[in-house]
Amino acid sequence: MDKINKLNPDNLRIVLVLQGGGAMGAYQAGVYQALHEHQLVPDWIVGTSIGAINAALIAGNPQEERLNKVKAFWDRVAHPDSLNMSEVGDSLRRSNIWFNSLDTVMRGVPGFFTPRYFSGFSLGMEVPPEEASFYSTDPLTHTLKDLVDFDYLNADGGMRLTVNAVNVRTGELSHFDSLSGDLCADHVRASGSLPPAFPPVRIGADLYWDGGLYSNTPLESVLNELPSGDTICFMVDLWSAEGPEPITMDEVATRQKDVTFASRSRRHIDDYAATHAMQRKLRDLYARLPAKSRTAADEAELLALGCDATLHIVRLPYAGRDWHMAAKDVNFSKGSIEWRWDQGYRDAMRALRHAGWLQHVAEDTAVVVHELPPLEAPGGPQPA
């Protein structure tokens, strides 16, 4: 008999939602480590951009190998620092990160992307559509094939993976799902192909760009499939929807990125709750009809609505200051990656200690959002 997990005693379905954010995705890795250590195995992961990469590393490997594969990816893409980030002051850390990020722009990231030094694209010339970018992501294809077992990922009965990408021609969001049994490295790479830095990826007859252009937080993919039972959804937010009024060029550029890529989850959650309430009212009204006015077909349709479930959303927001650097998503400094990973782990541990989803809620509650509880003690320095 399997041991009951105290953090999920009713064996609720677990969903992990990972948005895009480039190098900030190391925070997601730390969150996953905490879940992994507490045997909170996702049944379904939905990812966009770097979130799709992390998701593929998790879903595309047996449980005992998942964390090691995630670590292997972040070790591969980390840029070595010229100094020990944990032993220097804030000013030196910031300078190191600035030069490290500049190096990323000039030379790319090993195992991820490389510059197109001799492409006519940057000069305004026509190029093949698959080469219409400043960088090539061919190295990412090799990395994914090396670290992800796509046969395992697509096999029946495994962890479900959904990655989102935008159809370049139609502008519509596409959901590539392992349930179809044909996910490959190109689907994951397409989900992270943010123009004009990265090229579109051709899948079948169509080209695809980063799903974050349409919706950077793929919670909508989860809400569109009304769950048949109560669900715990861990949602990791890498961009801040709220922030101070910017007063410098760097702050304006950073705030622009935050606003562009921040989660729109509140709107989706409100819409989900409203739909849930209407469905419940519809069922109540149907129950008042005389028996002779009811049909088996109507009852089957009402049952399919599945509106008796409660969705627990555990929101984990990345809170790194990043010194208002607009290039924070290309800051692959090893010290920054380690700090972000550690912060994700610490935040997830706070959420697990709180375990708000274990508290009683009314049966007619559609969705509950659990925010991180206050810090128990002042946090340490933030080098990232």
Overall description:
α1 packs antiparallel against α3 (63-77). Helix content is 39%, strand content 14%. The chain has 384 residues and is α/β, with parallel strands linked by helices. The longest helix is centred in the last third of the chain and has 23 residues, at 265-287.
Keywords:
384 residues, nine-stranded mixed sheet, 11 strands, 14% strand, globular, disordered C terminus
Give unreliable regions as ranges.
379-384
Q: What is the end-to-end distance? A: 45 Å
Would you count the extended β strands for me? 11
On the 0 to 100 scale, the average pLDDT is 90
**SS class:** alpha/beta
Overall helicity: 25-40%
Strand content: 5-15%
- How is the biggest beta sheet arranged? 9 strands, mixed
Number of helices: 12
Morphology: globular
- What's the order of the H and E elements? EHEHHHEEHHEEHEEHEHHHEHE
Kindly provide the radius of gyration, computed on alpha-carbon positions and rounded to a whole number of angstroms.
22 Å
